Amino acid sequence: MMENQNIQPNNGLGQPVIEIKDLYKSFEELPVLKGVDLTVNKGENVVVLGRSGSGKSVLIKIIVGLLKQDSGIVKVLGQDVDTLQEKELNALRLRIGFSFQSSALYDSMNIRQNLEFPLKMNRKNISKKEIALAVEEMLNAVGLEDKVDQMPAELSGGQRKRIGIARTLILKPEIMLYDEPTAGLDPITSFEINNLINQMQLKYNTSSIIITHDLTCAKETGDRVGMFVEGRFTRMGKFEDVFDTNDEHVKGFYNYNFIQ
Fold first, then answer.
1. DSSP output for 126-179
2. What pTM, to 2 d.p., does this model score?
3. CATH architecture for segment(s) 1-95+173-260
4. If exposure means fewest CB atoms within 10 Å of the residue's CB, which of 108, 120, 130, 208 is most exposed?
């Protein structure tokens, strides 16, 4: 397989929903992104692997317009993110779901209220019945319908992660961005979260970028896996192909992280 083979053929998937070409970003004199190319197709899970500080989070922030690139093109759902006005950018963000590493639940709200909140904030004309049905659907989807009246503090870490994903999906985003979805979870719960990510992809036909350093997560959830090293993708493809290399950066990452 060729090195730095970043833009992959469609392989029968839908049209591209994220297109990034020759992306650069520096902070003062520190270069962080150094010529990133990436395409994510409709209905595809793309995993971004890399060490801490390699630029993965900066890439995500540019995709959703929280940071501006120095140069390069970022198109999301056909729109050039860098040229959007604030109103247009906010409308685009409603089509993108972000699952935070911390789950980001409101501790003062019970689970029902946590899931209702984004609907009430962003769907002004939605009825109480529609909200109740949406909450029920999402809790059923993540297997936690019996937790609807509990508080976040009463849930396990894995359950909070599931509720966080449910709250993100309740707006039916076209793109999901997962930030370290299995961080801090035990192996059994991590396995359940990996399965949930795949189930949500199949059920809602979402396109996802999954940022992780967990190679089991990458192997189980990624249709394609990209190895991010020093601000750019050095390998991109199927999990087995990405690690079939003599590149010491890639081999070292595998040997340090992977648990059979």
1. --HHHHHHHHHHHHHHTT-GGGTTS-GGGS-HHHHHHHHHHHHHTT--SEEEEE
2. 0.86
3. 3-Layer(aba) Sandwich (3.40)
4. 108
Mean pLDDT, the chain, rounded, equals 88
30-41 vs 175-179, strand pairing mode: unpaired
Q: 35 CB contacts (<8 Å, ≥6 apart)?
A: 22, 23, 24, 72, 231, 232
DSSP state of 70: S
Strand 30-41 to 16-27 pairing: antiparallel
Residue 82 to residue 8: CA distance in whole angstroms:
24
Which residue has 């904030």 as its token pair? 121
**Which H or E run contains 26?**
strand 16-27
Q: Edge-to-edge strands of the sheet including 45-49?
A: 96-99, 175-179, 207-212, 45-49, 224-229, 232-237
**pLDDT above 90 for 53:** no
pLDDT tens digit sequence for 143-181: 999 999 999 999 988 899 889 989 999 999 999 999 888
Structure tokens at 80: 């050039």
CA 181/CA 49 separation, integer angstroms: 13
The per-residue pLDDT for range 23-52, each reduced to its tens digit, is 999 998 899 999 999 999 999 999 999 877
